Each structure stands twice: as C-alpha cells, then as structure tokens.
Please model this.
Amino acid sequence: MYLLGLGIVLLVLKYMEIAPVVAWSWWTVLAPFGLAMAWWAWADSSGYTKRKAMEREDARKKARIERQKEAMGMLSSKKRR
Model:
C-alpha cells in the first residue's frame, strides 16, 4: 500500500511539473506501481495475505471470548487486574 501511495504522489508531482520530479524519467515515476504489483502477486501466491487475514480473525475471536468470559465473571482474579 505504501508503494501505491508513493506512486500516486510521484505521478501527481510529475503531472503538476513540480521540481525535482519533473526532471525524472517516466520509468522512475511509474516504478512504484510495478513494485506494488509485484508485491501483491508475491503476497497472494505465497499465502502471506491469507495468513495475515487468519491472524487478524484469530485475534478478534480471542478478544471476543475474553470479553464474554469477563462479562460472565469467569476470569480468575489474576486476569481481572
């Protein structure tokens, strides 16, 4: 996502002809978009994206279970503090 943001900023700077980006070649300005595509292709093919999504779901599930236990008064006195 950072590469996409950087690419958009560089594209706007090049379009608005703001120095020093105006002197750069288009290949340099558009390179972050290619790098972002390569990152997304790697993340999807390696399972990185799915693994991170599963970690977020597990963390939400654990937090929800802890909140329910606390609401029912099932937590030990050690965890209440």
Observations:
- The chain has a mean pLDDT of 90.
